[in-house]
Amino acid sequence: MSDCVHTMLLCLLFMGALGAEEDCEMLGSPEFPLLSKAGTLTIGGAFSIHSQISNPPLSFTDAPQPLKCSRINLREFRFAQTMIFAIEEINNSNSLLPNISVGYKIFDSCGSTLPSTRAVMGLMNGEERTLGKSCSSQSSVQAIIGASESSSTIVMLQMSGVFQIPVISHFATCACLSNRKEFPSFFRTIPSDYFQSRALAQLVKHLGWTWVGAVRSDNDYGNNGMATFIAAASQEGVCVEYSEAISRTDPSEQVARVVRMIRGGSARVLVAFLAQGEMDVLLEEAVKQNMTGLQWVGSESWITAGHLANERYSVILTGSLGFTIKKTKITGLREFLLKVHPRQDPRNNLLREFWEATFGCSVQSSLHGQTQCSGSERLQDVDNPFTDVSELRISNNVYKAVYAVAHALHNMLKCGLGGEAANQTCTWKDNLDPKQVVKHLQHVNFTLQSGERVYFDGNGDPAATYELVNWQRNRAGDTVFVAVGSYDASLPSGKQFTMNGLNITWAAESLKRPRSVCSESCPPGFRQAVIKGKPICCFSCIACAAGEISNSNNSAECSRCPLEFWSNEDHSQCVPKVIEFLSYGETMGVLLTAFSLFGASLTLVVSGVFFRFRHTPLVKASNAELSFLLLFSLTLCFLCSLTFLGRPSEWSCMLRHTAFGITFALCMSCVLAKTIAVVVAFKATRPANTVLQCSAPLQRTSVLSCTSLQVLICVLWLTLAPPFPYKNTAHATERIILECDVGSPIGFWAVLGYVGLLAVLCLILAFLARKLPDNFNEAKFITFSMLIFCAVWVTFIPAYVSSPGKFTVAVEIFAILASSFGLLFCIYAPKCYILILKPERNTKKHMMGRNQSRSQ
């Protein structure tokens, strides 16, 4: 219905302006200002002087009755008086608009769009009913200060913007008003909510509140501000549990439902982006439902409203936090306010209403039991939002707005070109083009007496700087607003928001910061996992996988450790991986070392036995020189296994493989020479041939040749692609296996294959001579030793390839020791048995048993 009245009113007002009759006459009644003063130039004002509006009954047969506003808002009345104070200062100044008087017209917007429409039409049209034959006339004001609400300001701009009349708001913070294309004539002395909303988002994030509730005014101010806050909060990782909207005109059931929603939510922090009217309504219902214990985060419109800091609401609001513009002092304002009195203008109803509301008396006659004002009442004895000038924030915005208009007009009229201040004059123009006023407003740049600099950016906005205030109690028990931080949008990102380290009072006057999270923090070693269907702030904590860490709380992801590092038990940091190699100190290394030394020692003992009995027929028949050389090579074979133990290095890797290859080649060469000697000796038909074919030089040459070939292979291997230490991270993820890479697989298998070739030749020859007649046939013992040797190394190949980590080296050592023990026992154990235990068999006669059997 209000929209219908709005439309009808516009039609009535503009029909007179569009009718090209003999006289241009206003249809309907004009609007009259609540406070006014004539002047050469006039500045208009629109303030929410009353906070309650009564909607008249509407019909299609009668004209709508005038709107009635009630319940005076003392804070807004102070804003209006601040405007008058600034204008009076300018009129008394010789340096600003000299010889020009500035008047004012102040209307009541009642904090609603419909009265705001009537106010702006009254400001533009004036009070004249007839303009003559032409309807074209200059606006009755050169600029408009107001309004206090964003929605009211937008309505005013939709009217005044058609004529480019500048509007400067002291309290309209909606970010939408920064749209220069839509509102080219709008300016304001309060920062845009775009910055305030982002500051609030950074505040809740800084304090660790990632789960908040939100309530807003259901108008342009609340809806746009909350939308910006939610978007900024989302970027900061803050989630909004609920977002409710209320209007002061909502039925009580709707407001009660919102309060129940807030009480039932799990968020312990409430972001209230509310205008004062909605804040009053919400607090009344909050008191009824005893809604306490919440941490309030407020917007600028109410966070420093003194009338809310009373005993009734302090239980709910003490500890509140919010951003506001910096407070200042206006010299002389308090004295000016204390002089306000109905006798200044006895016919002014607003002054009379103010006086009666302040002192609870009646100026005229006593009505309904009210006492009549005596006239001796003093505003100095009253402490209310009108007389309280301790928190001059928005009042200072009004003050700056008036001075901005004055400086723009001063520059536009080219005042001060005469030289000295006393002789300054202004070039007066009958018609002031509103577009020129807008142009000069855009370029004003001046400094107030307080030292504050006033200017506008390209969008008509001031610099965005805020104070973070906290509701605290002083020693007297009164609520005070203490600055505990600041926000400066002009600073680089990350440095805009700061806190000064002062103690903060939290909700319910607690000294401990409340927690408001949907899910408790995930400790280091865990990551967040989003719960399906829930906001990102609601999550479960999942332990990081092996090899991954998270070293901070609430990590979104676990990071994988570098290649040579692994996660610790808590998965909170990467530690160097355990380097694994077969060392001398561990059990397996000790056992293998013991067996290696035992084998070498046993070989030396056998060498000692053979040396002791070197002149006996058995040792001579066994080819003593080759036997000692074989024992020497076996000793080296046992000892070379020790090179496989310990931390691999560049030299140890080259030594272990070449020592293994050469010693075993020497060993197999000796066995091969012994085998050939046995076969040749038994197959010989003539002694001369036997001596020639089994001579010691020939045996030495064969051993040297076979060993030299292995040495050549090893030299080529070490020259072209030698073995080197290698950190194997692929086989085991949690540890590093330090091993020797063979370098060239061809070289490795060539060395191993050559030893195998010699072993196979020995096996074949020994196998052929196994049944030769003799009391002591050495060929069959060599056959057994070669069978063991070949079996060990054939088994070694798959075991070597499949063994993990250090067990690969252990398998190789085991193969070396097993084959060495096999050779030692099979070839030398029978001989030692005869030499030590059966000396009677150690005779030439017994050795010649074959010839004896043949002669028989």
Please tell me about this protein's structure.
By secondary structure, the protein is α/β, with parallel strands linked by helices. The chain has five domains: about 30-55 and about 65-130 and about 135-190 and about 390-460, Response regulator (Rossmann fold), CATH 3.40.50; about 195-325 and about 465-510, 3-Layer(aba) Sandwich (Rossmann fold), CATH 3.40.50; about 340-385, no CATH class; about 525-575, no CATH class; about 585-855, Rhodopsin 7-helix transmembrane proteins (Rhopdopsin 7-helix transmembrane proteins, Up-down Bundle). About 45% of the residues lie in helices and about 15% in strands. Strands 10-9-11-12-13-18-19-20 form an eight-stranded mixed β-sheet, sandwiched between helices. Strand 11, helix 8 (about 275-290) and strand 12 (about 295-300) form a beta-alpha-beta unit. The longest helix has about 35 residues, at about 650-685. About 40% of the residues are buried.
Structure in a nutshell:
This protein is an alpha/beta fold.
